[in-house]
Design goal:
- The chain is of the alpha/beta class and 405 residues long.
- It folds into three domains: 80 residues, VC0802-like; 84 residues, VC0802-like (2-Layer Sandwich); 222 residues, HUPs (Rossmann fold).
- 41% of the residues lie in helices and 20% in strands.
- The strands form two sheets. Strands 1, 2, 3, 4, 5, 6, 7, 8 and 9 form a nine-stranded mixed beta sheet that branches. Strands 14-13-10-11-12-15 form a six-stranded mixed beta sheet, with helices on both faces.
- A hairpin with a 3-residue loop joins β2 and β3.
- The chain is elongated.
- Bound molecules: adenosine-5'-triphosphate and magnesium ion (MG).
- Magnesium ion binds next to loops.
- Adenosine-5'-triphosphate binds next to α5, β11 and α12.
Length: 405
């Protein structure tokens, strides 16, 4: 079928007033951004729906992109016709034939906005239904749950036919939920948490800590590559890399082993919150979930969270690893995440970190290091880049394999 436009329906229709206006405006912007390399399209975001006129562009690649835009409930490829009923009959028949298999049933569902059109909805249903019954041997009409549903809309500017509704990504348009930073490691969890944060409309900047020479160039490249995997949901993503070697070395030298991990995490969160503030962001997201590892007990979270008043959001907090992995596979980050490059945290984590650190002791041990100087040094050394969907950072295959061996 040669479709002429795609009609997009919004999610979470309960949003009203100003919020709703912002929602529609942002969604229009995000759709335009995600389809920017299809020059023939015309995109109009209206109060109740968004229309993408194809102007000869094939529908499928456009629909594949739309599937990744948050805020879309579903969409339908449509054919727009002039108000010529013979053409409508032919096209409806063609649509049915394209899907028909023996034993299937169908239904015509007409809506009429143009009350001057020569037929009313019942007449249109009857005429089109009759035409299909006469031309598709064996097919029957079924009112409830037909296999094939042809929707006909008679509008002022033409007649629109569609027979498919495709599920969208749901959620809220990225940008309507404010701006936060994401603590992104190279692991399985933080990319999934990023995806879920963006799904609620939050624009996220990635903050990644790395510790050369203890962590390799490839570990940094992996975090960037993970960012490019999920950048499609946001258009593009700012990536902030933070040098953490000096802080880790000093903490390791001065703090008792049981508290190394807690104090290291406090330092990471403190630096991240400062970066958030510098960028005007209002919260910090992490990929933590309760009970997974030593740093992810409530006592640990209390001792680590102590360094900031900013909201720390943990979209995975109550998810099982298997559920998290399922999403990682869906968003295509899993295979990358499991590549075995050392993370700065694993390298400096002692064999037996305290799972229930004491808050007062934590605060006291931390006084052994020069927090302000280490923070300043890390923040002075940050580098920022903008990452677009599909960009490659790990294409030096030989290096990758050399490290794996
Ligand atoms: P992940 O799979 O996201 O690495 P994890 O289960 O391995 O999580 P940790 O490695 O303890 O758990 O990390 C917990 C969270 O701390 C991560 O989800 C991430 O938000 C943050 N984090 C860990 N390492 C880094 C890093 N190098 N840079 C930025 N954030 C990090
Ligand atoms: Mg990890």
């Amino acid at each position: 079928m040669e479709y002429t436009e795609i009609m997009v329906r919004y999610g979470e229709l309960s949003t009203k007033g100003k919020n709703r206006k912002d929602f529609i405006k942002q969604l229009g912007k995000n759709v335009r951004h995600s389809l920017h390399d299809f020059p023939g399209l015309e995109i109009r975001a209206q109060y109740d729906r968004l229309h993408v006129a194809l102007n000869g562009t094939p529908a499928q690649p456009v629909m594949d992109r739309l599937k990744g835009v948050f805020g879309i409930e579903n969409f339908s490829p449509m054919i727009k016709l002039e108000k010529d009923f013979e053409q409508v009959k032919d096209t409806a028949l063609e649509m049915v034939k394209a899907q028909y298999k023996p034993g299937m049933t169908f239904k015509i569902n007409t809506k009429r906005q143009d009350h001057n059109f020569e037929f009313d909805t019942n007449q249109i249903n009857d005429k089109l239904g009759g035409h299909i019954l006469r031309n598709v041997p064996g097919i029957e009409v079924q009112m409830r749950q037909p296999d094939i549903m042809i929707k006909v809309e008679v509008r002022l500017n033409g007649i629109f036919l569609t027979s498919e509704t495709i599920k969208g990504a749901g959620g809220l348009p990225v940008g309507t939920g404010g701006h936060a930073v994401m603590m992104l490691s190279g692991g399985i969890d933080s990319p999934v948490a990023s995806y879920l944060g963006m799904k609620r409309g939050v624009k996220l900047d990635m903050v990644h800590f790395f510790s050369p020479p203890y962590t390799s160039e490839q570990a940094l490249a992996k975090a960037k590559e993970l960012t490019s995997k999920i950048a499609g949901y946001a258009g593009s993503i700012q990536f902030v890399q933070v040098p953490f070697t000096k802080a880790q070395e000093e903490i390791k030298e001065k703090v008792p082993e049981g508290y190394l991990m807690t104090i290291q995490r406090r330092m990471m969160l403190r630096i991240t919150a400062a970066i958030a503030q510098l960028r005007g962001a209002k919260g910090v997201f992490t990929g933590e979930s309760l009970g997974q590892v030593a740093s992810q007990t409530l006592e640990s979270m209390l001792a680590i969270n102590d360094v900031t008043n900013m909201p720390v959001l943990r979209p995975l907090v109550s998810m099982d690893k298997t559920e998290i992995i399922k999403i990682a596979e869906q968003i295509d980050t899993y295979d990358l995440s499991i590549l075995p490059f050392e993370d700065c945290c694993t390298i400096f984590t002692p064999p037996a970190p305290k799972t229930r650190p004491d808050l007062e002791k934590t605060r006291n041990f931390e006084k052994l290091v020069d927090v302000d100087a280490l923070m300043k040094e890390a923040i002075d050394g940050i580098q920022v880049c903008n990452i677009r969907p599909g960009e490659n950072f790990m294409n030096q295959q030989e290096d990758v394999f050399a490290e794996l061996l």
